[in-house]
C-alpha cells in the first residue's frame, strides 16, 4: 500500500496545486494594488480578449470558475463600478452579454504591465521556450478534457496552439 503514496500522479497533482496556490497568492497582491479581485481581473481579461469585448453571460460562466449566479453577482458589482455593462441579446430575450467598458479597458491596461512582469518573473521566465510550449500544450489538453466548455465563444487556431476570437 505504501507504494501508492509515491505514485507520480499524486506528485503531479501536488506540484500543480502548490504552484497554483503560490502564483495565485502573488497575483492577488498585485491585483489588489489596482482595486481588482482575481475574479474581476479574469472577467475583464476574458471580455477584453473576446470579439467586440463581450461574451454571453453563460459563456463567461463556462470560461471562469464561476457559476451562472456567481457571474451575475460579479457582473452586477463590476457594472456598479463602471467596469462593464450588460447588453441584451437581440435573438434571445433570456440571454444577455457582459461588455467591458472603456473604464474597464483602462483599468485592465493599468494592471497588465505589472501582471505580465509578475508572470514572467514567477512562471514563464523560469521555463525555456520549448518547455513553455510543452507546458501550454499539456495545460490545454487537460483543460479541454476537464472543462470542454472553457473555450465557449472562441475557436482554436489552425494548428491548435492558441485561441483566436470566434467569428
Architecture overview:
Residues 155-167 have low confidence and may be disordered. The chain contains seven helices and five strands; from the N terminus they run αααβααββααββ. The strands form two sheets. A three-stranded antiparallel beta sheet has the order 1-3-2. The protein has a two-stranded antiparallel sheet with strand order 4-5. Strand 2 (84-88) and strand 3 form a beta hairpin. It has 167 residues and is mainly alpha-helical. It has one domain: Winged helix-like DNA-binding domain superfamily/Winged helix DNA-binding domain (Arc Repressor Mutant, subunit A), CATH 1.10.10. It has helices spanning 2-5, 8-32, 38-48, 57-63, 68-80, 102-122, 129-146, and strands at 54-56, 84-88, 96-100, 154-156, 163-165.
Major sheet characteristics: 3 strands, antiparallel
Coarse structural class = mainly alpha
Strand order of the largest sheet: 1-3-2
Computed over alpha carbons, the radius of gyration is: 18 Å
In DSSP terms (H or I, runs of 4 or more residues), the helix count works out at 7
User: How many β-strand runs?
Assistant: 5
CATH superfamily: Winged helix-like DNA-binding domain superfamily/Winged helix DNA-binding domain
Low-confidence stretches: 155-167
Could you spell the SSE succession in H and E letters?
HHHEHHEEHHEE
CATH class: Mainly Alpha
Structural shape:
globular
Indicate how many domains the architecture comprises. Answer: 1
Strand content: 5-15%
* CATH architecture title: Orthogonal Bundle
**What is the mean pLDDT?**
89
Helical proportion? Answer: 55-70%
By CATH, the topology is Arc Repressor Mutant, subunit A
Report, as a whole number of angstroms, the end-to-end distance.
53 Å
Amino acid at each position: 500500500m505504501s507504494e501508492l503514496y509515491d505514485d507520480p500522479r499524486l506528485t503531479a497533482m501536488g506540484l500543480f496545486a502548490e504552484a497554483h496556490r503560490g502564483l495565485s497568492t502573488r497575483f492577488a497582491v498585485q491585483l489588489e494594488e489596482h482595486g481588482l479581485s482575481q475574479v474581476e481581473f479574469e472577467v475583464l481579461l476574458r471580455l477584453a480578449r473576446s470579439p467586440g469585448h463581450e461574451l454571453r453571460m453563460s459563456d463567461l460562466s463556462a470560461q471562469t470558475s464561476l457559476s451562472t449566479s456567481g457571474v451575475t453577482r460579479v457582473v452586477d458589482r463590476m457594472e456598479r463600478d463602471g467596469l462593464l455593462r450588460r447588453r441584451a441579446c437581440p435573438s434571445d430575450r433570456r440571454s444577455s452579454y457582459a461588455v467591458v467598458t472603456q473604464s474597464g479597458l483602462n483599468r485592465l491596461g493599468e494592471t497588465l504591465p505589472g501582471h505580465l512582469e509578475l508572470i514572467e518573473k514567477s512562471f514563464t521566465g523560469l521555463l525555456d521556450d520549448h518547455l513553455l510550449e510543452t507546458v501550454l500544450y499539456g495545460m490545454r489538453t487537460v483543460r479541454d478534457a476537464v472543462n470542454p466548455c472553457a473555450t465557449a465563444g472562441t475557436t482554436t487556431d489552425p494548428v491548435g496552439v492558441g485561441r483566436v476570437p470566434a467569428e
